[in-house]
């Protein structure tokens, strides 16, 4: 590796103790920059790499609220504004008990390159809280969101920082967050958040965008090999926003998704997932995948193990980070899996990625490329808000399709250009890096 890259890795390691996921995300990107730094040493100059790996701003705040029993609860809120070279910070908010600064920094770092890949003029950021929405009443979720926004509102804006959803933050939470922002500022500033309701500034296709885009990406990888997803068995993890719409798009393409999961277990449905039933249980009743299995004779529920033990052609991880380890990857490859398209952020460990890439006939798409459709359509939502326009479903989905095709083709072209043909990891990291780095060099040392 180029000595400058080694030095940056060592220094970031020392400066960010106790932040393994952040260092994991960072190491993957830095390691893939070798070919571009060799050819363009200016990218290792001007403190560019040192600046790129240090967030522009990290905001941590107290979020006090009162639960239904009248007890005071205290959570911690985060917003990491990582890089604004290409546009306002953009990225979701995650509400999950595992959230800490390390998790938000890893997600914010990934977001920089993902957002660059969309070509939509958006910088990278991420936020969230260790608030656990499971088992909370609507009232408690509302009070939490209001308290969270009471601190966050001073840092965000449609030209500065535009949050959206992620794990534990969907339409309901964005509604409460937007309401409180509007109340505090006295301004109906549609473009300050994305993932809004369709009646008050939301965009058609935003709900579907991440899962749809992920499966479109898998389809483009298949087409590049002269194949398609039709008739293919897919394993999907998760049962939230991304997983549900990955299943929907896979079914539209004639594939057969047979699994889903949540933190209590996973389901194998030999007849293929019944999407209406899954949506009813997850989106309407806020239930568990165990309820799905109980209502569906062809489905089995498992409390132990995971969906990656089920033989498949296409794996669509759509739950969380590091959910595919080396053993899982070996099992997938042994069972004949040919395509991996990540809907979640960093779902495969570095060892799992090595297994996929070493297998020879697995096309592996990292999250920052394959799940970019979500933030991509968020940018389209911002565009509609700015122009006070509303686009049709078909028009917006076509834009998503073209954006995903563009990302796919850019990744392949860059990988080829830098001597790593068909390597979507190099392709995604170098394409994203080059766009951000060029803007940072133009802006001087800031
Ligand atoms: P949701 O909250 O809608 O769903 C998350 C799903 O993953 C749930 O089924 C949840 O189960 C499961 N899950 C979450 N954490 C864990 C865990 N630690 N162990 C086991 N299961 C877990 O989130 P999304 O669908 O929006 O997000 C899923 C992934 O996609 C995340 O990695 C997110 O960062 C990424 N992503 C999301 C985008 C979006 O637009 N929403 C865009 C790009 C990426 P349970 O309910 O039991 O917690
Ligand atoms: O990880 C992601 O890209 C998201 N959670 C979506 C971010 C967004 O701003 O729409």
UniProtKB/TrEMBL annotation:
The keyword Transmembrane helix does not apply. Substrate binds at residues 90, 111, 114, 165, 378. GO terms for cellular component: cytosol. GO terms for molecular function: glutamate dehydrogenase (NADP+) activity; nucleotide binding. Keywords: NAD, Nucleotide-binding, Oxidoreductase. Residues 203-444 form the Glutamate/phenylalanine/leucine/valine/L-tryptophan dehydrogenase C-terminal domain. It comes from the Bacteria. InterPro entries: Aminoacid_DH-like_N_sf, Glu/Leu/Phe/Val/Trp_DH, Glu/Leu/Phe/Val/Trp_DH_C, Glu/Leu/Phe/Val/Trp_DH_dimer, Glu_DH, Glu_Leu_Phe_Val_DH, NAD(P)-bd_dom_sf, NAD_bind_Glu_DH. The record marks 166 as: Important for catalysis. Gene3D superfamilies: Glutamate Dehydrogenase, chain A, domain 3, Leucine Dehydrogenase, chain A, domain 1, NAD(P)-binding Rossmann-like Domain. The active site is at 126 (proton donor). The keyword Glycoprotein does not apply. One of its GO terms (biological process) is glutamate biosynthetic process. NAD(+) binds at residues 210, 241. PANTHER family: NADP-SPECIFIC GLUTAMATE DEHYDROGENASE 1-RELATED. Homohexamer. Belongs to the Glu/Leu/Phe/Val dehydrogenases family. This is Glutamate dehydrogenase. It comes from Mobiluncus porci.
């Amino acid at each position: 590796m180029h000595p400058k890259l080694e030095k940056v890795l060592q220094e970031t390691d020392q400066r960010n103790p106790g932040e393994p996921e952040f260092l994991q995300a960072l190491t993957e990107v830095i390691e893939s920059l070798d070919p571009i730094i060799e050819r363009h040493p200016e990218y290792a100059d001007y403190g560019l790499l040192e600046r790129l790996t240090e967030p522009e701003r990290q905001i941590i705040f107290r979020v006090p609220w009162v639960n239904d029993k009248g007890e005071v609860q205290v959570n911690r809120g985060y917003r990491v504004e990582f890089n604004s070279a290409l546009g306002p910070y953009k990225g979701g908010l995650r509400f999950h008990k595992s959230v800490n600064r390390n998790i938000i920094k890893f997600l914010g770092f990934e977001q920089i390159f993902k957002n660059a890949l969309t070509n939509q003029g958006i910088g990278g950021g991420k936020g969230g809280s260790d608030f656990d929405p499971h088992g909370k009443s609507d009232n408690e979720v509302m009070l939490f969101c209001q308290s969270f926004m009471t601190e966050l509102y001073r840092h965000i804006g449609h030209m500065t920082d535009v949050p959206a959803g992620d794990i534990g933050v969907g339409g309901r939470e964005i509604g409460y967050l937007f309401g409180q922002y509007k109340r505090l500022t006295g301004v109906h500033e549609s473009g300050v958040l994305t993932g809004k309701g369709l009646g008050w500034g939301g965009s058609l296709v935003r709900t579907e965008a991440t899962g749809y885009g992920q499966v479109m990406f898998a389809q483009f990888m298949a087409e590049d090999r002269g194949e398609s997803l039709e008739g293919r068995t897919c394993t999907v993890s998760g049962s939230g926003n991304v997983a549900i719409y990955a299943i929907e798009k896979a079914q539209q393409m004639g594939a057969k998704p047979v699994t889903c999961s949540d933190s209590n277990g996973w389901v194998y449905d030999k007849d293929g997932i019944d999407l209406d039933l899954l949506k009813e249980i997850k989106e309407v009743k806020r239930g568990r995948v165990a309820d799905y299995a109980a209502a569906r004779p062809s489905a089995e529920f498992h409390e132990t193990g995971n969906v990656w033990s089920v033989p498949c052609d296409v794996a669509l991880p759509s739950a969380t980070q590091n959910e595919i380890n080396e053993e899982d990857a070996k099992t997938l490859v042994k069972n004949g899996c040919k395509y991996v398209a990540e809907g979640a952020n960093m779902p495969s460990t570095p060892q799992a990625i090595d297994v996929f890439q070493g297998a020879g006939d697995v096309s592996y798409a990292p999250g920052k490329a394959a799940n970019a459709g979500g933030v991509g359509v968020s940018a389209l939502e911002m565009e509609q808000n700015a122009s006070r326009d509303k686009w049709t479903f078909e028009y917006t989905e076509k834009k998503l399709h073209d954006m995903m095709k563009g990302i796919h083709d850019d990744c392949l072209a860059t990988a080829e250009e830098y001597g790593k043909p068909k390597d979507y990891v190099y392709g995604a990291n170098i394409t994203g890096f080059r766009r951000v780095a060029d803007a940072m060099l133009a802006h001087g040392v800031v």
